[in-house]
Amino acid sequence: MAEYFDPQVSLAIDMIRYAKKIVVFTGAGISTDSGIPDFRSQGGLWEKYNPLKYANYNVFLKKPEFYWQLEQELQPIFSNAKPNKSHKLLVTLEKKGKLTAIITQNMDNFHQDAGSKVPIIEIHGNAHKAHCMDCGFIIKRSYITKRLKAGISVPKCSKCGGRIKTDVVLFNEPIAEDLLEEATKYAEQCDIFMVLGSSLSVFPANQIPLLARKAGAKLIFINRDPTYMDKYASLRLLGELGTYLPLVINEI
């Protein structure tokens, strides 16, 4: 591991070792090692599918077929993906009594699948959950998957024939206030707030680290690329999450 040596790794270890309440904030970068692409990066899915058309709430209400076309593309990617070592290292941090909550922008359910038991606030929803917008019936993901594989372009509710929507938060769709309040509560009560694999470019989620900092928490960023919020970090590790996170967590 000498080739990856960074003097700030030891600082991160010390900060986490002496912390009592840590909140982790995860973005797309934590799931790329699982085979889930970062949609926003060069060559990402948003270059092929304009999110303002295919993942836009207002468009979905009028022409849901665009969103379901996107789901057809994502189905084989998500169906074969599993949590990676970074997700599992957060379980290790939790077992050490350090982690109080996970706030995630991801919708892949990997934190739960990895075994995390702390509160997981999915501020952008969960692709494994769905409901009927007309009758409120809870739709199983397996039901949707079967219909997409059968070539049905717009799955309908099995109970009333109404509009199915996954619990993923689309563009121009408001985030549930209770989720933001819960995320803010944990952010303001921690002493270390770790940002893992997030560009911090999406509002209002990107304001949560600033709320933690304002309340007195130290910010640790571990990202592949710089963010415009790096100036607020107490410590920044710039590189692959799958490389840095084991160096930090395994030494606690």
UniProtKB/TrEMBL annotation:
PROSITE patterns: SIRTUIN (PS50305). Its EC number is 2.3.1.286. It is an enzyme of class 2 (transferase). The keyword Lipid biosynthesis does not apply. Transmembrane segments: none annotated. GO terms for molecular function: NAD-dependent protein lysine deacetylase activity. InterPro entries: DHS-like_NAD/FAD-binding_dom, NAD-dep_sirtuin_deacylases, Sirtuin, Sirtuin_cat_small_dom_sf, Ssirtuin_cat_dom. The active site is at H124 (proton acceptor). Keywords: Acyltransferase, Metal-binding, NAD, Transferase, Zinc. Zn(2+) binds at C132, C135, C157, C160. Pfam families: SIR2. Residues 2-252 form the Deacetylase sirtuin-type domain. PANTHER family: NAD-DEPENDENT PROTEIN DEACYLASE SIRTUIN-5, MITOCHONDRIAL-RELATED. This is NAD-dependent protein deacylase 2.
